[in-house]
């Protein structure tokens, strides 16, 4: 085990620091790191390098190149920098590269060197130039702070939701501060800056001078300052080679250290981890690296080449031309197990397992020892935890093996922690692979969460790995595989060299109908890349037609959108498209489109009927739908028009339309109505009273009731009222008038076309039995019985029925024989029946 | 009497849940969301309320929007500001918002939705209370409500489990079914694994069977609907029924013990039943005599109330019967029924035609005349041109020229057509069928397709044996088949179709009928595995009528259920009858 702790360096009494290699870099740098602007994203993120030609005195003739590499040095992108001079580079939390230019413009690039967007840090900078800039991370996202030529600070706490805040002026500031940093405290971003021996804290309201407690005297200038990953701690490096370490609130001092090096360090970063025993600062000079903490001695490393430090949550990454290393404080579990001569339960368990493998009885001894102390559970937990902190798979394995071995001797040890650690390590080893190049530690991974890691893989277009991880971890499809496939598809549609057909087919093959994949989203992306045809093809795969519509509208494929909307059965959607079309097309085309879509047409017609009558008319006109046009005008003749002339005119138009529709019947009926209307008007003028809008029948009735028989006759002749109707009409009207004399005259005027039974009925209705009887005698033989019964002459009815020898009539009469008076009649009928049966 | 259910009849699902659900939603909306404290009926009058906000609960109709707009604009003119809220039920339509916008008040009102689509009118009857469905869909070709139907079905399947067997006939049925399926797929997993409570669902378009809906109803509940109009499960009995000077609103459902026993009876039996009942009641009252104090106390505390209640109901229904009788004899109901039966059976067409003509000439009733004309047209595959013209002319002379539009509507809906010469018809048919097979057009209701639609009633009637052959008198007291709801003269087509399909569990062997119904492309069956469905649930059948069903159909299917040991549950867009259908098609002067 001794060799394992060889790279452990103690700092003070309690903590060890170790540095191990993550990757040997193979990135063939043309430039020295010191000549470049460098930005490396935290959480094992990518590295951006921009050779900085503007720093040199003479203007560069060649354009610089912006290179982006993975943490393992695999090239991700390389592009010629064509924009203005860059002051600073930095990565946002979404792994977007922010390039702050001298003129205050910030250009945002994707991981693959694709330009995303740009924004400006304000107009003021245009003249004053940007002297320096920092990109920092806050709870809200990523922030940018700049220092202008006028020695003013401007910052934005979240570039995703850009709000520029100009910081107050620092009184008496004539030259650039010797060092400065952005600080985040209580969700507010501040600027801490050093001017000579003074420190100032800028918030958006004021500038206040601050003094670190317990600062050694004799400081005339601060050369470097560093804030920890979580903004909790601050370190200051003075020109006396003295390092002050304390809380970022400047309320408390943690420790101090005098390194006696007066040269300004190249970089200074915090190296700590959550719940760490020790907090240390790593200071880098050209060829020297120093780890400084609350101890009299520091740890020193020699740097063979130009190196760059990247602070992480739980350590510091250090990369150079040839290697990429990780420096961190050895976690407790690892320390317990691996410390020389450790008797911690985990250490014993590891030993026991090794002996067991050697088939040595010592295994039992060790195990017994742990068990006697009752620490087996703790031992297993320790091994599991330590495995997480190991970088080498071999070591992870042996620790896990030990844990698994120990587990055998435990009842009811919950398996989750072991299983999850195995899974997590598998994922971690996969992404740490050289080809992937995301050197996450276990703590970073837990902080980042699997969802974000998957996002980052997707961002690197490592779709297969992402999907494998999802499947391996059995993530729900909607969060896992489907989401990744959708991202893949969105990327796929951007491949301009592949034909629309192939892309669409490839996407459909992969995605099939995986739940949770929205083809319309992918299509929207395709459209965003200017591939309308592809978008349409992709939309074909979208099972919910409703989803297709908004995009189709956006792509100006309104007609297609219309048929899709109709397919969806959602009338609201159809209506939306219709209104869209109405604005987009000229009226003629709009109507033509409607014509081919009956469902949409009827929907629109319904709307027009209530809201836009004129449009409705135009619609019918366009279609040469004369029948409906006729109906339209008919409706207008009584609903819209008030004056008689207008009404007649509307009817005339209707009649014309009906003729065109070859609906002679309707045309004739309409013409009749015109005549009737005019006539009614005349009647009103001449006779007074209400005639308008009565039906023909009612008009004649009204005339008769008013005693204008002549007129009535005339009207009946003019409008060819059939005899039957006229007789019914007159009969009813005269009975209503109780003009029995006239009725009798009328009945004798000629043979009744409706028979005489109605006369009987109507008289009885008016309770005039006397008159009724007059007509009963004239009723024809078939209805005679009925008529006689109506007037209540049961006896005679019986006689007639018997005479007719009609069984049905006989029963009818019989059913009317109710009172005692009809007893004789009933007998008579019964006798007749009996007689009939005999025969 | 009042045939009891078979002992093995399955239990009905509890639909009161729907009521509770809707009520709670509404209370939440009104009280919590919108702080409503007083309710008024929207009736196109200026709102007199002086409160700070007005909240409208309306159907999403353009007319309603304009009413609201007029109110808001009137307030604006008067310089008055208040808050306006519109709650749409069952859903909001974009067109409505458009109208609000065009009227310039979109910014003044806030909108909300009350997704209430299923009202349980009775233990076995759910109504969507959308009478406008019929005109909107079958006349105007407007499909807006189909989605609502699909959503209602979706709600039912989430509450009562999936339906293992689905059948349907009609274009609208198919569309509603497909939309519903899409909804289910989108919300996958919710109904999965649930035990189905209802084994079958049958969707049927009203235009598959207009005939039944056009016939005069003679079962008690149908007659009450025809005579007094049942609204939302309750009826207003006027003074002539209550034999007092007040009108009385009466709920008609299974809760009413007397009504429950006579609702499905042919009217000729009802009087006898009621008088028997009255005698029984009297006997129970009479038991009082000779009781000692204790018995009397018991009687008063336990039975008297029930008896009084029954007494009240009994006198009401007797009153209703008398009133119906009076009205019917006045109108010569026997003649009318005789004519209807003649039309159904297809004899004495000339006589029937002149009867109708006389009916029109005498101005008996515009709606009745129209109904008879439609019945004649459908049973005869359209009127012969001469009759078509003369009947229409007579009608216009009697009732005014605006009915030219009514006729145009009826023609479009296929209710009143002219017999077309053969060749043009086939041409039209092929055109329509081409439209239908075209994929996109498959979902389209071509409002004009009905022009070419032949009703083929006679042929269907023969195929399905709708006119029962009767030797001697049809005993209405002990019905043999569903024809009893029309005095034994006619088995309702819609019910017969349902019976046949359920018997076969598919449309197999009914191809010819389906073709004659012009529904070749719109008859479907969809069966899923039944292993989860209990035998009990498989005898529960949900029948969905798109465009309305009549009480006669409900009675007929209730009868069928009793015969076969099924129970039917009815879901309809609205309860309808011949008069409502005709009114929906009529143009009236506003």
From TrEMBL, chain A:
Q: Which GO terms describe its cellular component?
A: CORVET complex; early endosome; HOPS complex; late endosome membrane; lysosomal membrane
Membrane topology type? Peripheral membrane protein
The answer to keyword Protein transport applying to this record is yes
Which GO MF terms does the UniProt record name? actin binding
Task: List each copy of the Vps16 N-terminal domain by range.
Answer: 4-420
Return one Gene Ontology term, BP aspect.
vacuole fusion, non-autophagic
What Pfam family does this protein match (any one)? Vps16_N
Query: Vps16 C-terminal domain spans which residues?
Result: 517-835
Q: Does the keyword Membrane apply?
A: yes
Q: What is its main location?
A: membrane
**Out of the domains of life, which is the source?**
Eukaryota
Localization per record: Late endosome membrane; Lysosome membrane
Which residue spans adopt a coiled-coil conformation according to this UniProt entry?
A: 349-376
* PANTHER family the record matches: VACUOLAR PROTEIN SORTING VPS16, VACUOLAR PROTEIN SORTING-ASSOCIATED PROTEIN 16 HOMOLOG
Family that this chain belongs to = Belongs to the VPS16 family.
Q: Subunit details for this protein?
A: Core component of at least two putative endosomal tethering complexes, the homotypic fusion and vacuole protein sorting (HOPS) complex and the class C core vacuole/endosome tethering (CORVET) complex. Their common core is composed of the class C Vps proteins VPS11, VPS16, VPS18 and VPS33A, which in HOPS further associates with VPS39 and VPS41 and in CORVET with VPS8 and TGFBRAP1. Interacts with RAB5C. Interacts with STX17, MON1B. Associates with adapter protein complex 3 (AP-3) and clathrin:AP-3 complexes.
Known function? Plays a role in vesicle-mediated protein trafficking to lysosomal compartments including the endocytic membrane transport and autophagic pathways. Believed to act as a core component of the putative HOPS and CORVET endosomal tethering complexes.
Q: What's the protein called, per UniProt?
A: Vacuolar protein sorting-associated protein 16 homolog
Species of provenance: Piliocolobus tephrosceles
UniProtKB/TrEMBL annotation, chain B:
Tell me its family.
Answer: Belongs to the STXBP/unc-18/SEC1 family.
| Organism of origin | Piliocolobus tephrosceles
Chief subcellular location equals cytoplasm
Annotated membrane topology is: Peripheral membrane protein
Q: Which InterPro entries match?
A: Sec-1-like_dom1, Sec-1-like_dom3a, Sec1-like, Sec1-like_dom2, Sec1-like_sf, VPS33_dom3b
Identification of the protein by name: VPS33B late endosome and lysosome associated
Q: Name one Pfam family in it.
A: Sec1
Gene transcribed to yield this protein = VPS33B
Subcellular localization, per the record?
Cytoplasmic vesicle, Clathrin-coated vesicle; Late endosome membrane; Lysosome membrane
Query: What superkingdom does the record give?
Result: Eukaryota
GO BP annotations listed:
protein transport; vesicle-mediated transport
Asked whether the UniProt record includes Transport among its keywords, one would answer yes
**Keyword Glycoprotein applies:** no
Q: Which GO terms describe its cellular component?
A: clathrin-coated vesicle; late endosome membrane; lysosomal membrane
